[in-house]
Amino acid sequence: MDYAASILGRLPKGSRASGLNRLLSKVKSYLPQDQVNQILDAYEFGAAAHSGQKRISGEPFISHPVEAATILADLHLDAPSIAAAILHDVIEDTPTAKEQLVERFGLEVAELVDGVSKLDQIKFKSRAEAQAESFRKMLLAMVEDIRVILVKLADRTHNMRTLEALPPPKRRRIAKETLEIYAPIANRLGINSIKLELEDLGFKCMYPHRYKVIERSLKRARGNQNRFMRRIADTLRKALGSTGIEASVEGREKHLYGIYKKMLTKSRPLSEIVDVFGFRVIVDNVDDCYRALGLVHKHYKPMPGRFKDYIAIPRVNGYQSLHTTLFGPKGVPIEVQIRTQDMHRVAESGIAAHWQYKASDKLTAAPQARAREWLKSLMEMQDATNSEEFLENVKVDLFPDKVYVFTPNGDILRLPRGATAVDFAYAVHTDVGNRCVAAKIDRRLVPLRSVIKNGQTVQILTARHAKPNPAWVNFVVTAKARTAIRNYLKNLRRGEAAVLGKRLLAQALGEFSMTIRRLSRNRLNEVLRELGVEDLNSLYEQLGLGERMAPLLARSLVQNSDRKHVAGEPAPLTIAGTEGMVVNYARCCFPIPDDPIMGYLSAGKGVMVHRDNCRNLAGYRKQPDKWISVQWEADVNRQFTVEIQVEAVNRMGVLAEVAANIAGTESNIDHVSVMERDGDTSTLVFQLQLKDRKQLARVIRGIHAMPNVLRVTRTRA
Length: 717
Ligand code: MN
Known about the structure:
The protein has 717 residues and is an alpha+beta fold. The protein folds into five domains: 3-161, Hypothetical protein af1432, CATH 1.10.3210.10; 210-363, Beta Polymerase, domain 2, CATH 3.30.460; 407-477, Ubiquitin-like (UB roll) (Roll), CATH 3.10.20; 486-632, no CATH class; 640-714, ACT domain (Alpha-Beta Plaits), CATH 3.30.70.260. 51% of the residues lie in helices and 15% in strands. The protein contains 28 helices and 19 strands. The strands form five sheets. Strands 1-2-5-4-3 form a five-stranded mixed sheet. Strands 11-15-13-14-12 form a five-stranded mixed sheet. The structure holds manganese (II) ion. The site of manganese (II) ion (MN) has 4 residues, from loops.
């Protein structure tokens, strides 16, 4: 008696065996008996662990993991994956420990189950964070072993099939997550069958009414199309057969969610999308693909601009095929996909094709390699960002609306639609991006923000000491560029914060007649430990960013013994205007050198400088520990923004006259607005760039002397 029969014999009678039998007949078709036995063993263990548990639908719990395993068996996944699918909930939902699984099924299966369990175990603050973080964890697990995500996808697919059992709000949440995350991942990995099912199930739950409308009209169309479909298929088969190309021709199923998306993106009516005949032609080799394409074009006229060669340029998930659209009988469009059998396997199963035909060919390794490459780039990205940023970034990657462009060497780069020359530079290499100064598109010099289009050749010019411009963040679209620029700025800011933080501490210590140098090392280390701060430099950074208050820190650093508290204010911190991103100038009162000023520490942002008569100070003064006294350095050498108001006679050309007068004092005008007062006068508001109060006084005097000007004042906050 074989092992299978012995286990089956021991199972309690009931419905659960039918699911198991279906699974067994599937795995037996492609796995050797000893591996089938392993799967049975997993079943026995799982059934025992979950015994007594029921799903919300009332079925015994074990039916769920068995169905998940069956989904993987359809993809011909290996025995450890199938076993892991059967066991995927035992760590989480039963007292079973990972060690038990290691002992019984070996490390491989145990790690897979553990990986899947970890994806479900994370606790979160908010929904958005939860989604982002679970997604991030999923990707990380995937990097370890891509089969973890395959098990997870199968789990989700079965949960989607049985969604009806859940209360509606929960249903919608799961469906939304499925459409936003799981289906795109399945798509990114090329697992078409799972992607389509997840999309249709998600769509059905989110928009039941729209789903029904499309379903009905698709059914009706199918009825009408049958005869036509057969006729076209026959024509194509005969044509191919007559030239000796071995080919199978079949009609192609349309998917509801795909139709719906087309309606949205192409804003075309349902009837136009449904009334399209879809065919797939499968041939033996790549040459035959192109020959078949020629033949098809000879029989039906191709629609211009609708031919796509995904064989020469595969999709990012490894998908390859020729796509063309033809004018069929009565002008009805016919969409034809032409591909080889191998390509077809990859098109249906993507990364899973790798397990189906392990040793067979290079082709099935391509999606695998692409997926790895993708995961690697995600890993690089994830170090630098918080989870929500990360999810935003990955979403760009998951929706492959791409353009293909060439490097000067003829290499093809794939970029999302809307990508700019800067995105291209970063796609080539982070260093190229960080040092790019100009770009040429098709050999013509263009601005770096130029959007690149399909087929263009892009060349990036770099300079050794060039640096990324913060403004680039506003127009780049790729995750890689955005992350690299943000990183660069973050590091720059951290450096600046540390310098400022050290000065703040020195200032605060001054109150105790102490200097950083003379601090007791022991006490310093003690304080670092108490605060949980890694090292002195990190402490300076935190001080500079306003995350810690220097006076409090100074007090705890100065030991009782040598605390000589000097009455009076500590010496103010001097502002030179060169502190960078950690010192900012308030836009309410526009302080400029020579103005009496105060500094306000805001956590994470550093010091905000206000004029000391700024109205906003009143509110801030309630938190005296956040205020620090600051003063301008004697010779500040940069431009600051200041705002003035000019009341003038309402007369043609007066704005131009005032502007010319300002320009004469070598001040730049940043911004002008005009407020109409009444028929006779108007108020002009200028934001100017200038050096200090002396220059401001000159500007004001100059304007004041103009004949049409009634009043000129600096804006008070
Ligand atoms: Mn599950």
